[in-house]
Structures are given as C-alpha cells and as structure tokens.
C-alpha cells in the first residue's frame, strides 16, 4: 500500500482541506518536530526546486517556508516582483512560464489580489501553495493556528474560539473560520460593526458584541492585526476608541487565567493587544511562529512526493 496523500495535489484554500487531510498534515508535522529536535536531517525534497514568489512583503510566512524547504533539502529561489520584468509589463503567466522553464516544480505564492494562486495553478503543471492572496485565503496560517491549538489542548474539536478585530479585511479570519469549523471548534466573532461583513450570516458565526462577554465565553482569543491603512481610512472613529472597546487587555486575562491568546502577527501593541500579554504564560504567539515551520515542512513534503 502506498503512502497516504492529501485530497488535492496543491494547497489553495483552507476550505478544500478535509479532516483526513488535516490529520495527515498534523501527523507529519509531529514527526518533523520530534525528529528535528534530535538533530536528524531530511531529504524529502532533494532534487526539487521551490520558488518563493512573493508579490507582497512578508517576514514570518516567507522565512518559515524558506527554512522549511531548506530543512527538506530542497533548492530554493526567491522571486521579488519589484525587481522583475513585471515592472516592464511582463504578464503574470509569462513570469510563471519563465520560472517554470528554469526547472522549478513548486511555487509558494503570495499576492495582493484574491484568486491569483488559483489562476496560476490552472496554468502550470507544478504545485502551487497559497501563502496569502488578497482578502481571500491564508491556508497555512489557519493550519498552524489549529496545529498550535491541537498541541496545546490535545484536540481542536469542541474548543470555543473567538476571533477579534478586523474580520472583514482578513484572509486569516476567513481561513481560520473554515478550518476551525471543519475540525469541530465553535467559532464566534467580536469586532466593531464596520469591521464585520455587511451580511453577518455569511460565515454562519455568532457575533459577540462585548469583549468582556467574549472573554467569558471563549477558551481561545484569536486577535487579528488592525492594518495601518484601516486606521487612517475613516472606517473607525479613532484608534483610541477601537483600543478602548476591542483591545485585549492584561486585565481580561487576570480574570480568566486559563484563557489562551493567539495572534498571526505582526502585533500592534497598544492597539489590539496590551504589551504585557506578550509574556503571559498562555500567550502562544511565538509558539505559532515555531509551529509554522513544521506545518510548512509537512505540506511541502506531502505535496512534493510525486515530483
């Protein structure tokens, strides 16, 4: 019997992942995490070239994918759109085919426009991994978030997770909602009305109006970054007011010490989070970053098996 495979030979959105897919990814992540601690080397992607194709700035995602690929013995190349022929009018498809002609088999793609990874996958025989597209999806962030909860609690099913902050503009929120619900978690949202979808039933998640009520209800607070452009666009009365009513404070956690805190980063301390929470025992922000490498190792390994 051959090794188990993911249900799709690429990763475009969290909603495509089945519970069996997630179990396979988590099991593989566990394997890499435990064996890496022992100093073992991995050659899963030896002879495979992985292109980091980032049209948007990134620190955590790009670095962790790069580290993950190198730990699997892949060759990696880094594509920067600002210094490419795209600035001279070259099309996205021509750019893809140019990279493909150099022998690249896997592409980690981040783009500011929703749907670009899907478009590229339809036009290549290689493997596309979506590292974030527009406001649409960020599936590897959702996987590492759920994996962090799985490692902390032992299971995701039945957990009460409240997502707080800029919901409407967040690809992280969309992906986390989809994956957490697939895994059986209860998900609620807490945000100002201007940062929620106009159709509040679109994701079938209850809204909790008060942050205090959210703290009372939740096992996990998953706080989103308030993007700078939202701060200055007039969509909020003021940053001070947002922080007063929706900023997560140290006092919230002193009332409920078992509460777990997560954030995809980077954090605007003093806006969405009190800085004192960065050293709180149940603050898992840096754990998320660590787990991100092993989740991405698992995905690259599983999707690169047939290359």
Q: Can you describe what's shown?
A:
Helices cover 38% and strands 14% of the residues. By secondary structure, the chain is α/β, with parallel strands linked by helices. The chain folds into two domains: 14-135 and 289-303, Rossmann fold, CATH 3.40.50.1370; 139-288, 3-Layer(aba) Sandwich (Rossmann fold). The strands form two sheets. A four-stranded parallel beta sheet has the order 2-1-3-4. Strand 1, helix 2 and strand 2 form a beta-alpha-beta unit. The radius of gyration is 20 Å and the shape is globular. The two termini are 19 Å apart.
SSE order, one letter for each helix or strand: HEHEHEHEHEHEHEHHHEH
Shape: globular
- The fourth-level CATH homologous superfamily of the largest domain is Aspartate/ornithine carbamoyltransferase
What is the helical fraction, as a range of percent?
25-40%
- Helix count? 11
On the 0 to 100 scale, the average pLDDT is: 91
Distance between the termini: 19 Å
Structural class: alpha/beta
* Poorly predicted residue ranges: none
Total domain units? 2
Q: DSSP strand (E) fraction?
A: 5-15%
The whole-angstrom Rg is 20 Å
The overall strand count is: 8
Query: What is the level 1 CATH name of the largest domain?
Result: Alpha Beta
Provide the CATH topology of the largest domain.
Rossmann fold
Oligomer: single chain
Task: Give a short account of the largest sheet.
Answer: 4 strands, parallel
CATH architecture of the largest domain: 3-Layer(aba) Sandwich
